[in-house]
Design a protein that fits this description.
Length: 316
């Protein structure tokens, strides 16, 4: 099969028939064999009834229905697990992503050799204050942290080589950082395509301003896990040793200074009257705690079933 189209959705009953017709037309015009996987993320409207109707009329349409709303990452993860196409396309169900972009995305994967191609909504049809500006700040931060030079990392319209989606785990709210997950899995040939972005035709956006704060925290978590996840002692151990050393040196210096002054009969302050001494003790205690946290993390890492899982590219 040529293409699998994975579409996560939540309360998008009105847009699904038009989206299906649009995708089917593009596929037929380009003579692609395809499947459409519609993942209903616990919709409360008639989305699932529409999916069942589309599936009955078109054998290329398949559906997955969650019992409750788990989020976009869960929908993509389950959708990826069911794909059979050589190229996997993801897009949103709200008709803001154009299926007309699919042929060029597929060409970039097949002919240009990209592992992943992300859409770039250069001219967004969203509120400039509540979406466009926060999106620019979010993407600038993501580029700096991940080292991936994408203008729109969170764009829902993406194309993947099939093996990419089979070798990454999308969880929590990490769908925003799929290019970073792919990079960490060894798929570093990541490209970008300027895509047309349309105004929402039906309903309203399911995402609020909180997603930007959540996105920043997720980025920090992902960076930490990818950097120190398999060797937690490198972060906690070095940090703990540094704090312990600094605190111990300061505490010893304060005690020695007091003893020297006392021996020479000059004025001195009792050690316990100096706030710096308590800060030094705090640093020593925190250093021990950090070191032990690193040690425990190292033990957990060594017993993880993922510790010897490697993505082999070729074998002779």
């Amino acid at each position: 099969m040529d293409i699998s189209v994975v579409i996560p959705l939540y309360n998008e009953a009105e847009s699904l028939p038009e989206l299906h017709s649009w995708i089917a037309r593009v596929m037929q015009e380009n003579h692609f064999s395809y499947e459409i996987l519609l993942v209903d993320d616990g919709s409360t409207d008639s989305s699932w009834e529409v999916i069942k109707s589309l599936s009955s009329a078109d054998p290329n349409v398949h559906g997955i229905r969650f019992r409750r709303n788990y989020g976009k990452s869960a929908a993509l993860f389950c959708g990826f697990g069911k794909t059979h196409g050589d190229v996997v396309i993801t897009m949103d169900a709200d008709l803001q992503d154009s299926p007309d972009e699919i042929p060029e995305l597929v060409r970039m994967i097949r002919e240009d050799g990209y592992d992943l191609v992300s859409g770039w909504k250069q001219h967004r049809q969203d509120n400039p204050l509540t979406k466009n500006l926060p999106s620019k700040l979010f993407n600038a931060t993501a580029r700096r942290v991940t080292g991936i030079k994408l203008h729109d990392m969170n764009c829902g319209l993406k194309a993947y080589r099939s093996e990419v989606v089979k070798n990454i785990e999308v969880y929590g709210e990490m769908h925003r950082y799929i290019p970073y997950l792919a990079k960490n899995a060894g798929y570093t040939h990541i490209g970008e395509l300027k895509v047309h972005h349309q105004k929402r035709k039906f309903g309203k956006s399911k995402f609020g301003m909180s997603r930007f704060g959540n996105g920043l925290l997720d980025l920090v978590s992902l960076w930490f896990l990818s950097t120190f996840g398999k060797k937690p002692m490198y972060f906690f151990g070095y940090s703990g040793l540094a704090m312990f050393f600094v605190g111990a040196v300061i505490a010893i210096w304060i005690i020695v200074e007091k003893l020297v002054r006392q021996a020479h009969g000059t004025d001195f302050r009792p050690v316990t009257d100096q706030p710096l001494f308590y800060l030094a003790l705090l640093a020593v205690v925190l250093g021990v705690i950090f070191f032990l946290a690193g040690f425990i993390g190292e033990m957990i890492s060594r017993t993880s079933p993922e510790r010897n899982r490697y993505n082999i590219r070729e074998e002779l």
